[in-house]
Amino acid sequence: MTQPFELNTTISNLRDLHASDLSLYDAIYLGNITCRLYEANLLEHLGDLRDAIATVKAHGLKAYVTSYAAPRNDFLPKLAKAMAVAVEAGADAVEVHNLGVLKIVHEAHPGLPIHVGGFANVYTDAGAEVLKQFGAVRITPNYELSLEEIGQIHQQVGLPMELLVHGKMPLGISDHCFLLEYEEAWGMKCPDLCQQDLFLKQGDWAMKSVGKGVLSGKDVCMLEHLPRLVAEGHTRFRIETVSESPEYRLEVGRVYREALERAFAGTDGVEERWWTTLRRHARIGLCNGFYFGRSGMEYLGVRPDAVASALRRPVAETTDYQAQGAIR
Amino acid sequence: MARFFSRAARPILLAPAGSPDAAKVALQAGADAIYVGLKGWSRGGAKSELTSEELLDTLAAAHAQGRKLQVALNTIPRQSERRYLVRRVEELIGLGIDGIIVNDAGLMAELHTRYPELRITASIGCAAMNEADVAFYRDLGADAVVLPGTLSADELYAAAQVPEVLIEVMIHMVEEFIVLGKCWMPSYYRLNATPLAELHGEGNRLIGSMKRGGAGVCFKVCEHPWVLSLNGQDVAQRLLPSRQISPINALSDILDAGVDVVKLQGRSLSPDLLAPIVGRYRRAIDAWEGGGPVPALQELPLEPSWTVSRR
């Protein structure tokens, strides 16, 4: 019997791939979309990329190869090679965030399934329809969209929508890395800088820094709302672990594997042990992203303790920029 | 409607106009064309948009001087709002505007199909950064694509080689840490739904979302100080990198690369601030066209927070 859903995640390099237990996932996105200099980024190390695809497929999983979110001209030749390697090595699909790359990939590999990523700015059914003509078979809508809006696109266009159900949500991508300023002060060089546990804090909220990009400080968590996602016909789910440890990948993956199986079986209920695991891995707390039409860091649900943040007390004691009116 | 520009023509100086007064001084200072926001539908912010009446007057003034006017409609409308916006575009075409600036690939394709003679520019919010992006938006029906002034002359040259599409460069702009068009930090922090009067309860502006703000308002959270935490310890207080760029001293290289339109950012600029910027670029373009040296200008200083780039 075919499984009714897909749970996937992201891995940037071979080291992380080998350190991770993949058994909870159905598919893996390979590569780092943020930076060419990310440690052994699979998109830059094409021998590693071949090995990674083979490893993922040897586990019986689907291998997807992602691509850069904001590529300049000088990225394109290498990226085209990476996409060619993906095809040769048997990747099941590629993910694109840049519409120029979409055109390149579609023209070079006309039959290749293309997943459109969250940085491609799909906000409307009309936008999704256009990308379908360029080979898109799956779309991660822009993270700012509500479930209602995503449902409209899904119905109008007929393509599966991939939803981030847990993990730190991308909030922006940069052409520069300010962490390089700290190489001397911290005694640490690129590419080790962005591997650290780095947060940018402003009052009682925060974002996670990954050098050339920022992620939500809180972990998006849709655990309570999986039955609604299932009822609305969604079947493709991502746990974003690009900046997380293998332990996170394993333990959070286990929670969602169980929870999704239960939701698809029509059984209600959220296990307390699931909450314990998710809270332990979310230092800044949990949020729902934009799925309910609210600001991205809000949490709606029956678990108010989900928003508990290790950030609140120490920051309030140091500098409260919000109270000082620094945030308009 | 005739095509707005052609590649063979001289470089066009395209200036922002966030008010009728700003439009007036931009034209006086030598802009070949101006772009304005229509109330409720542009990224520029409510204070920098024109009402329909102001738009009509400004259009008449521009045309009386032989200049052009583009209308920025570069927020992304929801499905229910799109029908309304498409009707508004038809009205604008009837008024004789010279082009529109849009942000959403779907809307762009729809407008190109409906109005094939309408000149469409892919907004800076489309975040085009490479020659393949330019070709993509051309394929959807864009006549011109806006690229950021942060690209090198070599990159602009490559973009200018893409056939049948014009290259606009936002040469005078604020370079923020996050790439324009790829940022939703503000709405992560706060998102306010405000009814849009024009839609009589059928549509909301989502203040905080630069893509769907209507009023184009973000909360500029990036401009405030951050505490940088490393492995649980607060190690620095800093701003995210941001700087004003205005590489007028590199204008010859940029124009030599084949750029068609020199675009200035700043619909929020007051007339007294806008006029000298437009005048400076007018003189520089004229000097380049005359084969002389572009007038030297002291480069604007970099913000101390600006950082290195390693790619």
Summarize the structure.
The complex is a heterodimer of chains A (328) and B (311). Chain A is an alpha/beta fold. Chain A is 33% helix and 20% strand.
| CATH superfamily label of chain A | Aldolase class I
Q: Helical content of chain A, roughly? A: 25-40%
Structural class by sheet pairing and helices of chain A: alpha/beta
Radius of gyration of chain A: 19 Å
Oligomer: heterodimer
Give the overall shape of chain A, derived from the CA principal axes. globular
- Please provide the ordered H/E string of secondary-structure elements of chain B: EHEEHEHEHEHEHEEHEEEEEHEH
Most strands sheet of chain A: 12 strands, mixed
* Major β-sheet annotation of chain B: 8 strands, parallel, barrel
Judging from the principal axes of the Cα atoms, what is the shape of chain B? Answer: globular
**SS field, number of helical segments of chain B:** 9
Q: Which structural class matches the secondary elements of chain B?
A: alpha/beta
CATH architecture of the domain at 12-178 and 242-289 in chain B: Alpha-Beta Barrel
CATH level 1 name of the domain at 12-178 and 242-289 in chain B: Alpha Beta
- SSE pattern of chain A, N- to C-terminal: EHEHEHEHEHEHEHEEEHEHHEH
